[in-house]
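Annotators were shown the component list below and the corresponding predicted structure, then asked to write short factual statements about the assembly.
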Amino acid sequence: MKTQGVARRGRGRPPGESQTREAIVAEARRQFSELGYGRTTLRGIARGASVDPRLLLHYFGSKQELFTTSVELPIDPERVIEVVFGEGPDHVAANAARLLASVIDDPESRRPMLALLRAAVTEPEAANLVRRVLTERMLLPMASHVGGDRPELRASMMASSLVGLMVVRHVVGIEPLARASREELTRALEPVFEHYLRGDWVTPA
Amino acid sequence: MKTQGVARRGRGRPPGESQTREAIVAEARRQFSELGYGRTTLRGIARGASVDPRLLLHYFGSKQELFTTSVELPIDPERVIEVVFGEGPDHVAANAARLLASVIDDPESRRPMLALLRAAVTEPEAANLVRRVLTERMLLPMASHVGGDRPELRASMMASSLVGLMVVRHVVGIEPLARASREELTRALEPVFEHYLRGDWVTPA
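Structure shown to annotators:
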């Protein structure tokens, strides 16, 4: 958001535009997460952000587009790739396990994941949008670094570990897992990721 | 339900009682799953089942109790234990992987899991009840057969695989995983379960 705002000011746009856009996105994020996708309306977001509803259509085109724009990922995909793949293939599983355990263990990075999960679980239309966002912004960039046979399938098995841990540990709060330490999670996940990444379980495409 | 009904008739209770109880549970299941935990009321269930609301309190005591009674598990815990642990410790991971892949791959057994997930994700009060049901009916019975250090933690890591796969494959519908075959899932999960069950990743309690 910010970069885009700065670029626009650089091109001589009105100075208030990027702030307005950011205010709309912030309000959208708040309402989508509080009301769910279905009960959130462009009109309600406009009211909450104190702007003309037509501005929302002007900036974002549709409710779907505003939703995918306002989705927060728990961690920037480029940063994920740098941390996970930066030390070469023999360190990918260990780095991914450490990163995932820290993302899961941090309330701040869990929050946007829980919002996505809630949207996907409760509303099929939101589930489609969540799928698009996760696939385009997280899974495909990851998979392009995974290599081997069927990298998207391998990356999506890793993603399923993240989601499952988050639900069992933080949504349902199953006890022994809720108390497991970050170190324990890392040790639990590393061989699993090694297997998902390089094991011979996939059927060649 | 059925056993209880029969036992009661055996003790000379009115013949309609077990049918009434079953009708209430069926209606409760329907409403909890359609409306969510929060918007479902005892009065609404009574109306749907065409019974006096006081009967619900008489049979179940509270909305919480009716919810936990009406929860369906995708598969009977005793059957899980028989299938998974029946052939001895060296076959547990393979049998668990095969069972889990088949549960995940079957729309009929996914349905109750999705209902639990939806309840847990959207409402903290329901999440508490889901935790209680899963812990008492599934996790503790499983863990008592797992053995080793911290069996509940090991069992809950396996549960997280099930939940994660279900969400990524069937709620969000991430593509390569949604198309993965039952055999592929089994091959993916077997070494993972072996590690969760017998690996040395846990910190001794």
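Statements collected:
1. Chain B has twelve helices and no strands.
2. Chain B has a mean pLDDT of 88.
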